[in-house]
Amino acid sequence: MICSKLDTQLQRLAKSKQCIYTRYADDLTFSTSKSKFPARIAWLSQENETLIPGKDLTSIIKENGFQINDLKCRLQSRYGHQEVTGITVNEKLNVKRKYIRQVRAVLHAWDKYGIENAERHFWEGYHKHRRYEKSKNSFRSVIQGRIEFIGSVKGKNDPIYQKLLKRFSTLAPDLVNPDKISKLENETPYPKRPDSIETTIWTEGKTDIRHLKTALQELKDAGKVNLNFSITFKEDLDDQKQGSGQLFSMCEQFSKEKQSSPIIAIFDRDEPKYIKKAHDDTIGFRDWGNGVYSFALPIPAHREDKDGVCIELYYRDSEIQTKDEEDRRLYLSTEFNDKSGRHLSLDLNVSNPGKLKSPQLKIIDADVFDKENKNVALSKELFSRYVADGHLGFNQFNFEPFREIFTRINKIIQHHLEGLGSVS
Q1: Which of 103-117, 155-169, 211-225 is predicted with the least confidence, judged by mean pLDDT?
Q2: Is the whole-model pTM more than 0.85?
Q3: How wide is the angle at C-alpha 385 spanned by C-alphas 383 and 390, nearest 5°?
Q4: Half-sphere exposure of 418 toward its Cβ, with a 13 Å CA cutoff?
Q5: Are 412 and 295 in contact (CB under 8 A)?
Q6: Using CA atoms, how far apart are residues 246 and 229, in angstroms rounded to an integer?
Q7: Cα dist. 23→7, 36, 39 in Å?
Q8: Contacts (Cβ under 8 Å, ≥6 apart) of 151
Q9: Of the given ranges (28-37, 317-326, 399-408), which has the lowest mean pLDDT?
Q10: Across residues 66-87, what is the average pLDDT?
């Protein structure tokens, strides 16, 4: 009732400017298909690219006893990310990746560390500035509500919602109707295409696999990767020497016999002698024959001036240098004097400066000591686990650079299917 007059006036203003007006609580949205947004509602300052509320809009808001929060004013084109009250509205309704990642991370922590630790991490990490009535069931109810919100936006047949709900049901079976889970298990959200194919991915080690699996899930959630085949990552690497040489030998061995499904090996770029043999720049990968393929990691845009790219360098420097609760982090070789091993700006030393001699940009994940002789380096193994688990501080990384890897895999599978077609 308080906003009845306001809504009527804003509806009239929107209609006069060929716009659509909607409101949720104190969030006002004006949308239009016109190429230029009506200046009487809002206009973009060319001086500092700030959105300025228009005269007509400002007048109506003030007349009704309200004020405009300038910090929340924004103009979104259809070519960029469009969001209203936390929901992406570009071509279809969607939920922000960060929101889904947080829910997934909480469920993982609940399953691995118990509900008390997960609950404490949740309130302190995600909602430390907000007040909640923390009753016995408030944490479980909040998580259930978030999962159902994802389902209401993305749809109940969405595989992300279904996967989250199934996992929640194992942790809080008393809150989920078993008939609902049973129904989901008997449904196939997306039927496989006739040419659906199983693909095995090999890498130089477990951490590479962990980063790729995480990136694939994140990019799928964002609708930025669409694979018409399933991927299996070869993870039984405990008894293998992990590196370019071993991976190259595996390609040689397996390509001697025809494989029932394609195998794709992904090489880091830090050993040039293997890259020349495992990668063909003319087509973007090497076809070994018999369903075995390999390629070197594509150089991401933010590393165009670097040669020896490894999987960790797909992240930005600020992401690589994220600290954990014990103040440990990964370091870049360029942070140190390559002769003395002394950090250029911090009171730290690398105990083995020989690691810094390579002209390639390297990740330093061991033997970095402070003045108290404490090792402050974070291992690649632990870094990959933090990223995969959505650990606090490591749960907002940008996975966009990884898209090119899956584009390359898509290209290989297309090549493989074309080869099968030519044989038949």
Answers
A1: 155-169
A2: no
A3: 100
A4: 7
A5: yes
A6: 27
A7: 8, 22, 20
A8: 158, 161, 165
A9: 28-37
A10: 61
pLDDT higher than 90, residue 49: no
Residues 6+ apart with CB under 8 A from 406: 216, 219, 225, 227
Mean pLDDT, rounded, of the chain: 83
Structure-token pair, residue 240: 């293998």
What is the C-alpha end-to-end distance of the chain, expressed in Å?
Answer: 71
DSSP state of 211: H
Give the count of alpha carbons within 13 A of 230, CB side only: 10
Q: Which pair of tokens denotes residue 348? A: 């730290």
- pLDDT tens, 188-198? 444 444 345 78
Cα 389 from Cα 205, distance rounded (Å): 18
Q: In this structure, are residues 112 and 170 in contact, taking their beta carbons and an 8 Å threshold?
A: no
CA distances from 334 to 120, 349, 384 (A): 38, 13, 21
Q: Which amino acid is at 341?
A: G
Q: Are 140 and 172 in contact (CB under 8 A)?
A: yes
CA distances from 1 to 5, 6, 75, 112, 200 (A): 8, 10, 28, 48, 60
In 259-315, the DSSP E strands lie at 263-267, 286-289, 292-296
Per-residue model confidence as pLDDT tens digits over 243-285:
888 899 999 999 999 888 899 999 999 888 889 899 998 899 9
Q: Which of 238, 176, 197, 216 is nearest to 400 (CA)?
A: 216
The residue type of 321 is Q
